[in-house]
Design a protein that fits this description.
alpha/beta; Rossmann fold; 7-stranded mixed sheet; 11 helices; 13% strand; Macrocin O-methyltransferase; TylF_MeTrfase; transferase; methyltransferase; SAM-dependent_MTases_sf
């Protein structure tokens, strides 16, 4: 590679270097925000669950996203927030067109972070879409995927279901509720087929269930720009992984699936 301009471009694209003016402050802001959203600073205790019976804060569990925080605004952990940042910054550097969306937002922490990345990069022409029922998981209906019925996630709706007003209030607390944040309240099967965005650059799914994951992929993946990212938070769950495999096989998708932290996974859409 003899052209120094080409060499500089590769270094910038691959490593994000040299930093843009103000970049150090932006990264300090985003790194601090990740700590606040996961609450590794004030160390709130977890809510005991079937897979984590701990009652005291455990930093390893929190950083890895393995507990249900009692007060933190996200449960995805630090590595998965790092992944969100990496994917958004890559599509911004590569000028991949489209908005950002998360389907299944709980207290809104990950979408708050998405909006923060856009703010740090001073991006004003992209929207963060916040899609959730805001009442928890749907009860299985006759004909539902058998694994969805077996999981019984709806029985945790007192904790999982976070009202829309609460999520909006959380955005406001960070100073990030504005015209670049839009909400899609309702069951995915009702809201996603007519979702009004034209293109997406980052599609993040935190849907837990086979049918919810399939609904999101079916209705939103066609809007994902080439070079955009699909992030599957619950890839470690067989029922969610099955939906991903079935969708990819049905549409002949062979882009490499990459691990995030042993629990989540992602891939980049090819040309």
């Amino acid at each position: 590679m003899s052209d120094p301009r080409q060499c500089a471009r590769v270094v910038r694209d691959e490593f994000g270097w040299p930093p843009a003016p103000g970049d150090t402050g932006s990264r300090l802001y985003l790194n601090l925000l990740k700590k606040i959203l996961t609450n590794v600073i004030y160390e709130d205790p977890p809510v005991p669950s079937e897979w984590n019976h701990g009652r005291a804060y455990d930093r390893v569990d929190r950083v890895a996203g393995l507990d249900w925080p009692s007060r933190a605004h996200t449960m995805v952990g630090m590595r998965r927030l790092d992944n969100v940042q990496t994917c958004i910054e890559r599509v911004l550097r590569d000028e991949v067109p489209g908005d950002l969306i998360e389907t299944g937002v709980w207290r809104g922490g990950t979408t708050i972070f998405m909006r923060a990345v856009l703010a740090a990069w001073e991006v004003r022409d992209r929207v963060v879409w916040v899609a959730d029922s805001f009442q928890g998981m749907p009860e299985p209906k006759p004909g539902s995927h058998r694994e969805d019925a077996r999981l019984g996630t709806h029985t945790f709706n007192d904790f999982i279901g976070v009202p829309l007003d609460t999520v909006k209030r959380n955005f406001t607390a960070y100073g990030l509720l504005d015209e670049q944040v839009r909400f899609l309240p309702g069951w995915f099967s009702d809201t996603l087929p007519a979702a009004p965005m034209e293109r997406l650059a980052v599609l993040r799914l935190d849907a837990d269930l086979y049918e919810s994951t399939m609904d999101a992929l079916t209705h939103l993946y066609p809007k994902l720009s080439p070079g955009g990212f699909v992030i599957i938070d619950d890839y470690f769950l067989k029922v969610c992984r099955d939906a991903v495999y079935d969708f990819r096989r049905r549409h002949g998708i062979d882009d490499e699936i990459r691990d995030i932290d042993g629990y989540g996974a992602f891939w980049r859409r090819g040309p």
